Amino acid sequence: MIAPTRVGIVAVSHSRPLAEAATALALEMVAGDPPPIAIAAGTDDGRTGTDAVRVAEAIGEAAAGGGGVLVLMDLGSAVLSAEMALEFVADPPPVRLVAAPFVEGLLAAVVRAAGGADLDTVAAEALGALRPKREQLDDAGPDDATPPASGAADAPSAPSAPVADGLPAPAIAEATVRNVAGLHARPAADLAQLVMASGAAITFATPSRGPVDASSPIGIATLGAGPGTVVRIAGSGPQAAATVEALRALIDSGFGEELAPGFEGEGGGATGAGEASGASAAAAAAPATPAAAPATPASPAPARPTSTAKPIGVSGGRVVGPIAVLVHAADEPDAAARVPEAERADARARLREAMLAVAGELQQRADRVSGQRRDVLRATGAIAADPALHRAAEALVRDDGLTPERAVWVELERTVAQYRELGGRMAERATDLRDVRDRIIARLRGVEPPGVPEREHPFVLVADDLAPVDTVGLDPDRCLAIVTEQGGPTSHTAILARELGIPAIVGAMGATALADGTVVLVDGDTGELVERPDERAQATATGVITLPPFVGPGQTADGHRVVLGANVGAPRDIRRAVERGAEGVGLFRTEFCFLDRVTAPSVDDQVAAYREVFAAFPGQTVVVRTLDAGSDKPLPFLTALDEPNPALGVRGYRTARRDPAVLDDQLRAIAIAAAAERADVEVMAPMIATVGEAVEFAARARAAGLDRVGLTIETPSAALVADELCAAVDFVSIGTNDLSQYTMAADRMSGELASLADAWQPAVLRSIRLIGEAGARTGTPVGVCGEAAADPALAPVLVGLGASSLSMAARGITAVGAVLSSVTLAQCRAAAEAACAAVDPAAARAAAREALAR
Ligand code: PEP
Ligand code: MG
């Protein structure tokens, strides 16, 4: 239900018994709340006849639904009375008198109105109500159905029940929702598609909600039907019985998703192994056109960027290319603008074209990808194609003169509010609804849709900031480099860019003011950003420099062993890690597998994703970190949307306070995947702040069957109680990105504060020293998995502070391995001592360099 309005129905007849019987018959077809129906039949003294005053009253009663009134009449003077009644209605609602057959028309109208259809559609259904009977009897008589109004052009064909003994019998069934996630976006899209393909008129209702038009995925989703909910399916039309049965079977099957406890083994519900890598609807699947097209021409007379003060190189490589600027959400369309009456038909047509074009575009993109990304794109496309949304938005243009842009905005905001009211997973779909909204508005305005731009040629992506979900979907073959105004060296944009091997600079203030298509030179090592480089400058571009793969084992010149592992996120990082010679995986950021999931991944989906990583490292260690959701890595199914300060909120291990089952499922999935592969799997928890959390996590992980349990130390509190933490687990790993952020109280996302959120800060180094000493005292291995581990100058210092393993983006391993092999452990310790004693990062660097040279 997009609009909270209902079309009311008035039955005008000479005979009260006839009107009452026809109404009762129609109501049998409705599974939930019927629309307002008023009868104006017979005379006050019980005789046969019609009365215009009573018809006027009935119109007033039926108008309570707020969606206009449809009047059906039986014979001759009933029509006259109804016409006359219109004169008596003060302040009349939109009223339509239709020349539909009385019984069939009433039935069709009631069913469609119950499903939330608008007045045009309900009228068209009533007018076409004889068609099924004609088809059944092979009677090709003149079609008395007026062509449907344009607002109803995509409505299902007219309903009618199968005929038995001359009476229509409603097709009704009940199905129980069995899948864990309930009738969320994907199942809703599947159900609505089935309904639309059948042509039957179907409504769904639950004991507490509905009925809704089942051709509307949004309507279905607003039922909020979770596992165990009984859905009543009612249908009419030529295919009603078969469609109702197919819908029942589909709901009962669990849609191939994970089944809720208690419903397993009741048939259906095979768990599909979804694709583990994630990408947002906005970021997924750029067209796979070869990178041959010329650069987009730069706009004429370009203005210089306001400033590109102090950009920081965060991912190496020097490249040249035209920029493409990330487009943000649409501005709110003018609420006061009105379309003149004479132009509304055109405006509605434009609106319909835009919605269908966006639906088609998303579907096409869905067809080009697979697994989870396909499901997300398909479900998002189904929102744009939702017939109820079309009708509601078009009605705002037609009746109120809203611009098409405003109508889309209003209707989808209304739907967002409904989803929010449902809470939980439905509330998390708000982003998808707004993505559809912005795409339709962009289409109407003739501008680029929001998200990572789609280009036929390779480009330098410029943005004020990038969400991980945008970055993780980037194609390194098309995205030459990333330039952002925000973000520090340890922001996730920087981390992902390094993992993808895409040169990147952050803190390039003013870069988004550059005209789209402007050619720039980007140096991800030095942070240089040159606008329109001349030929000489262009010739200095070297692309991405890659050193030969690392040949282990990692050790110092005097044979002190330091394991050099890779950090991986999405499964595509695996190949790079193997190619670069990583000694296993020191940090598997599992949340990157599920960034675009709107519902928690099933255990089976997780097992598939984890096995892919484990299989690549037989006999080597893979350290899996449980979901580190929150802050700048929100996971729609786990992260609270309304935290005032997400970095200090419910992120990392803290999400298990609210959703313990998500953690336990993940631990179970890791254990299952570990048992199936030959990697030595270890598990650790992110963002541990207390000894109690460490003890609790270790117990849960061991209960799930995992032997080697650890945790990341990335809060100052954890550093201060490192001895007790070490005693509670088998190993610890220092997350220097967050440890720097929290120790220095400097947002790691802030380019401006990058010099504070720096692991070279003596305060951070001394925290690391505390942890190293605790590890030595307790015999607990201490690793480093933050970005500091990839800094060849800092790596010996970390080893000197007690790190026995370093894990980093795979590209950094060769350089770090080479440095370590050139220094002794004693030199590392001397460098660590000197750096800790320094007063600031620059002095720490200089002191370490000097100590290593001795
Ligand atoms: C860290 O904080 O250093 C870390 C490794 O975790 P993430 O960067 O994923 O927050
Ligand atoms: Mg961290």
3D architecture notes:
- By secondary structure, this protein is an alpha/beta fold.
- Helix content is 40%, strand content 14%.
- It contains 31 helices and 25 strands.
- The strands form 5 sheets. An 8-stranded parallel β-barrel has the order 18-19-20-21-22-23-24-25, surrounded by 6 helices.
- β14, α17 (492-500) and β15 (504-506) form a beta-alpha-beta unit.
- Residues 686, 714, 735, 737-738 line the site of magnesium ion.
Q: Which descriptors apply to this entry?
A:
single chain, 854 residues, alpha/beta, eight-stranded parallel β-barrel, seven-stranded mixed β-sheet, 31 helices, 25 strands, 40% helix, binds phosphoenolpyruvate, binds magnesium ion
What does the secondary structure layout of this molecule look like, with pairings?
Layout: E1 6-13, H1 16-28, E2 37-41, H2 52-62, E3 66-73, H3 76-88, E4 95-98, H4 102-114, H5 119-127, H6 131-137, E5 163-164, E6 167-168, E7 171-176, H7 185-198, E8 201-205, E9 212-213, H8 217-221, E10 230-236, H9 240-253, E11 312-315, E12 318-325, H10 344-368, H11 371-384, H12 387-400, H13 404-422, H14 424-428, H15 430-445, E13 459-463, H16 468-472, E14 479-484, H17 492-500, E15 504-506, E16 519-523, E17 529-531, H18 535-539, E18 563-568, H19 572-579, E19 585-589, H20 603-615, E20 621-625, H21 655-658, H22 660-676, E21 680-685, H23 691-703, E22 708-713, H24 716-720, H25 722-728, E23 731-734, H26 736-744, H27 762-778, E24 782-784, H28 795-800, E25 805-808, H29 813-821, H30 825-837, H31 841-853
Parallel strand pairs: 1-2, 1-3, 3-4, 12-13, 13-14, 14-15, 18-19, 18-25, 19-20, 20-21, 21-22, 22-23, 23-24, 24-25
Antiparallel strand pairs: 5-6, 7-10, 8-9, 8-10, 11-15, 12-16, 16-17
Helix pairs in contact: 1-4, 2-3, 4-5, 7-9, 7-11, 10-11, 10-12, 10-15, 11-15, 12-13, 13-15, 20-22, 25-27, 26-27, 27-30, 30-31
Magnesium ion binds next to helix 26.
